Amino acid sequence: MAYVNASQRVTLVVFGRKAKKLAEDLGVHPDDLRNALTPDELILLQEVEDTAVRLIDIQDIHPDDAIQQSAERLLIQVQNRALKLK
Questions:
Q1: Per residue in 56-65, pLDDT tens?
Q2: pTM of the predicted model, to two decimals?
Q3: Rounded Cα distance, 70 and 23, in Å
């Protein structure tokens, strides 16, 4: 159950909506959600998940906090890359 909750949290943080709503918006069954995502969206999800796992394992951070921090770190990286492109 903890994995399901964490996975739901990642989807909410990355896409701004729960997996069920995202699947509905994409016109797919929730079990098929990842198949409906673009390669870039899958990479983004994986990066947030991987970073969260490292924070949980190394720093013993609560999963919800680790997911939030992972998403924030990724956003900062994206913003920094965008600034370098200007």
A1: 889 988 888 9
A2: 0.75
A3: 23
Q: From the CB of residue 55, how many other CB atoms can be counted at a distance below 10 Å?
A: 20
Tokens describing residue 34: 């990842």
Model confidence over 30-79: pLDDT tens digits?
A: 999 999 999 988 888 888 889 888 888 899 888 889 888 888 888 777 66
Structural domain spans, the chain: 2-85
> Residue with structure tokens 């951070």?
61
CA dist 74 and 53 (Å) reads 14
| Interaxial angle between packed helices 2-15 and 63-85, expressed in degrees from 0 to 180 and rounded to the nearest 10 | 30
> Which residue bears the tokens 């709503």?
21
